[in-house]
Amino acid sequence: QDGDIINIDVTVYLNGYHGDTSATFFVGEVDEDAKNLVKITKECLEKAIAICGPGVEYSKIGRTIHDHADKHGYGVVQHFVGHGVGKLFHSDPVILHYRNNGRGRMALDQTFTIEPMLTVGSINPILWDDKWTVVTEDGGLSAQFEHTILITRDGAQILTQ
């Protein structure tokens, strides 16, 4: 409906490899609260990608996202995670988007997704009967952005631009 925001998640399988990306879009005219949530969620993804590189701890992704979300008063959904992607669609590493003490470090030539989901209210998701659509427990606004990245010598390359 006019004023909603909606996330569309797209996966591709080409020449034996998977790609995974998503973005949040405006439906008609949205209010400033929705615009700001979408803006900050996209910034969280960008900031998380910017800190990636060989040897960086995965937990730094969650800390970066959570710190930026907190600064703007948004919740970070913990139920959904980023993941390794390549010949297998969902594989290690598991990428947490919230502060955590997880172990592990990024490796050169590794591919995975980062896909933070922020909310205005509840961070608890409700899965619809279609087994795909997710809304927040309180019906509040949520936004998500995702990219598949490749760890390079100089940091990270976005593969799903």
TrEMBL record:
One of its GO terms (biological process) is proteolysis. Cotranslationally removes the N-terminal methionine from nascent proteins. The N-terminal methionine is often cleaved when the second residue in the primary sequence is small and uncharged (Met-Ala-, Cys, Gly, Pro, Ser, Thr, or Val). GO terms for cellular component: chloroplast. Its EC number is 3.4.11.18. Coiled coil: none annotated. Binds 2 divalent metal cations per subunit. Has a high-affinity and a low affinity metal-binding site. The true nature of the physiological cofactor is under debate. The enzyme is active with cobalt, zinc, manganese or divalent iron ions. Its cofactor is Co(2+); Zn(2+); Mn(2+); Fe(2+). Residues 1-152 form the Peptidase M24 domain. It holds the Pfam family Peptidase_M24. The keyword Hydrolase applies. Gene3D superfamilies: Creatinase/methionine aminopeptidase superfamily. Keywords: Aminopeptidase, Hydrolase, Metal-binding, Protease. It catalyses: Release of N-terminal amino acids, preferentially methionine, from peptides and arylamides. Belongs to the peptidase M24A family. This is Methionine aminopeptidase. PROSITE patterns: MAP_1 (PS00680). It is an enzyme of class 3 (hydrolase).
